[in-house]
Amino acid sequence: MAVKQKRITCARCGERETVTKGERGPASIYCDLCRDEVKREQNALRAQAYRQRKASYGGGSALNALP
Ligand SMILES: [Zn+2]
């Protein structure tokens, strides 16, 4: 099975990296280390935003604010 590789410059730390391009989507714009970090950050941000939204709506109408 052929694996396509692509050279990128990490959008986070600026490190030159060779990433494996998946068949189902674009290659990551982050190096391996940052990819994990970014994923963790996004999860944390999402959880934080959810908590803030819930707090600002007092819980009652929080469902209406969801997309
Ligand atoms: Zn990086």
Give your account of this protein's structure:
- The chain is α+β, with helices and mostly antiparallel strands and 67 residues long.
- It has one domain (5-57).
- It is 43% helix and 18% strand.
- It has 2 helices and 2 strands.
- It has helices at residues 32-56, 62-65, and strands spanning 4-9, 16-21.
- The protein has a two-stranded antiparallel sheet with strand order 1-2.
- Strand 1 and strand 2 form a beta hairpin.
- The longest helix has 25 residues, at 32-56.
- The protein is elongated and about 50 Å long.
- 3% of the residues are buried.
- The site of zinc ion (ZN) has 8 residues, from helix 1.
- Zinc ion is lined by residues 10, 12-13, 15, 30-31, 33-34.
Q: TL;DR?
A:
The protein has helices spanning about 30-55, 60-65, and strands at about 5-10, 15-20. It is an alpha+beta fold.
Topology:
Elements: E1 4-9, E2 16-21, H1 32-56, H2 62-65
The structure holds zinc ion.
Strands side by side in the biggest sheet: 1-2
User: Describe the biggest sheet?
Assistant: 2 strands, antiparallel
Mean of residue pLDDT values: 82
Based on DSSP secondary structure assignment, what is the total number of beta strands? Answer: 2
Shape: elongated
Task: Name the descriptors.
67 residues, alpha+beta, two-stranded antiparallel sheet, 2 helices
